Amino acid sequence: MLTGDKLETATCTAKNAHLITRNQDIHIFRSVTTRGEAHLELNAFRRKHDCALVISGDSLEVCLKYYEYESWSLRVSVPLWFAADAPHPEGSDSASCCRSARGSSPCAVGDGGNDVSMIQEADCGVGVEGKEGKQASLAADFSVTQFKHLGRLLMVHGRNSYKRSAALSQFVIHRSLCISAMQAVFSSVFYFASVPLYQGFLIIGYSTIYTMFPVFSLVLDKDVKSEVAMLYPELYKDLLKGRPLSFKTFLTWVLISIYQGSIIMYGALLLFDSEFLHIVSISFTSLILTELLMVALTIQTWHWLMIVGELLSLSCYIASLVFLPSLIDIYFITTVSFLWKVTVITLVSCLPLYILKYLRRRFSPPNYSKLTT
Description:
Elements: H1 7-16, E1 25-28, H2 35-46, E2 51-54, H3 57-66, H4 68-72, E3 79-80, E4 107-110, H5 116-121, E5 124-128, H6 135-139, E6 142-144, H7 149-189, H8 201-207, H9 212-216, H10 226-231, H11 237-240, H12 247-271, H13 276-298, H14 304-320, H15 336-363
Helix pairs in contact: 2-3, 7-12, 12-13, 12-15, 13-14, 13-15
């Protein structure tokens, strides 16, 4: 966490952020320039117990130069003013530093004009509208009116934003890879002939009106209520591990896309009657329904706009069939044969994934699931 350029600012910020308690003793490290002075100050602090350390950058540089091991082995409750890219002292819980973060992803918080450069340099800048004006607020990525709102910005909005962005990006990948897998299977069956599976409006409609609304409605999803996220800030720690969006989740969705695309395509090739147009009708309808079902299975907290998005996409597809007689056989899709074939293919592509998801949540539930029951 980046604080101001004064020892008093670092101390007040640490207290407001509850890094240290209000009645905890604070040891202000005296300004030192020589090895002897640093040795005396380190011994003086070592004799204290359950005390927070406040040290300036110049004094810390001297200590690290002559007593690097001793400086980092101090057992303090909460060290203040240590560099963010340096290891925490043994036994410490957190650190508050002053404009010295390198090799990390800092979040800069400021309320004055002298904080503008710090806010712009950080990966995420938060400006507080205060008595010093709105310079910091205008230069920041996010703006809050009071410092206490920073907790909700991080624990609620920041956490939801990360998880929603992860889910949205994965579904965009799934949506594209699924239809690509179908095209690959189709080409391999017909000896890699350069014949597209879907033509014209079907490709454009699949990427826009047929699947866009449900997929983008995932930005409204949330796993826990805002009050629960504020009450249990430990939930934020799961995001630090990068599990919602990692190589593992990416490969998982790639396998899901290949599996579903292959099932839909092979199912349509096995169950179609006699015309090529029937393959397109069965596979494309199954693809749309699979995508809508996958979004529904991923949602954890339903919002009324999500329901509208699902119904709107399905309605747009059904309504557009009237204008696509050359691409989809309208008479065939009204038969019982078409309905049971599409139903079987859709269930085979989605039901195993739902069972695996249920078993995983049953035997290895995530941390937030304990707070939703």
